[in-house]
Amino acid sequence: MLLLEEQPLGAIVLDIEGTTTDIAFVKNTLFPYATERLEAFMAELAPTAEGQAILAQVRAEVGDADLSVEDCIAQLLAWAKADQKVTPLKAVQGMIWDEGYRTKAYYSHVYDDAAAHIQEWHRRGVPLYIYSSGSIAAQKLLFAHTIVGDLTPCFQGYFDTTTGAKVDATSYENIANTLEIASKELLFLSDHLGELKAAQQAGWQVRAVQRPGTADFPPDLPSIKHFGELPIAFSDA
């Protein structure tokens, strides 16, 4: 049996940005690369089935079924520059990041303690999942091309904004239902106070991750500075 401070633990769900991965990598490498490539990339993608699906999502998002291709691309670019967590934008960013990884334009950052414990927890049979605002495709790409190698075999599944907003307690209820694990047996690790509060509201166990540069968390919120501080116990009982 897996325990966290004597409470049963069925799985660990991890945020990415600011939790497993330095925000600077996402902010200074991934997002600028995607924004710079977005217009040309979408112009090439638009005639394809994938491109048409994204354009349809943009039109649905803004409530204008007649929005031109050029205006759809302009809207995607505006969302990108405003760092909006909109599903069609996340899908396009994921495709562009795939291009960057394939061409070895960059490798993704993972904190040393996160990489080590993700691998160790996986080795010991801990079910691990990711819940991030980035698309599932982008999540898989990030963990497949890290500075320490491919970590995707360590994860049993991924969740993104199609599950719901990360600051909405219903999203965490949806994840618990999908995993068929009681909310009280799920642990969420994140650097975002709103996400942690939403997970708590849904009945999850939480730990705030205090990385360098992260704002201080309220004293009543359990927090850790690195994954090694998690009091996980492995019992044969």
Automatic annotation (TrEMBL):
Enzyme class: hydrolase
Cofactor(s) this protein requires: Mg(2+)
CDD domains: HAD_EP
GO molecular-function terms, A-Z: 2,3-diketo-5-methylthiopentyl-1-phosphate enolase activity; 2-hydroxy-3-keto-5-methylthiopentenyl-1-phosphate phosphatase activity; acireductone synthase activity; magnesium ion binding
Keywords, ordered alphabetically: Amino-acid biosynthesis, Hydrolase, Magnesium, Metal-binding, Methionine biosynthesis
The enzyme's E.C. designation: 3.1.3.77
Pathway: Amino-acid biosynthesis; L-methionine biosynthesis via salvage pathway; L-methionine from S-methyl-5-thio-alpha-D-ribose 1-phosphate: step 4/6; Amino-acid biosynthesis; L-methionine biosynthesis via salvage pathway; L-methionine from S-methyl-5-thio-alpha-D-ribose 1-phosphate: step 3/6
Subunit structure, as described in the record: Monomer.
Free-text function comment from the UniProt entry: Bifunctional enzyme that catalyzes the enolization of 2,3-diketo-5-methylthiopentyl-1-phosphate (DK-MTP-1-P) into the intermediate 2-hydroxy-3-keto-5-methylthiopentenyl-1-phosphate (HK-MTPenyl-1-P), which is then dephosphorylated to form the acireductone 1,2-dihydroxy-3-keto-5-methylthiopentene (DHK-MTPene).
Protein name: Enolase-phosphatase E1
Origin organism lineage: Bacteria, Bacillati, Cyanobacteriota, Cyanophyceae, Oscillatoriophycideae
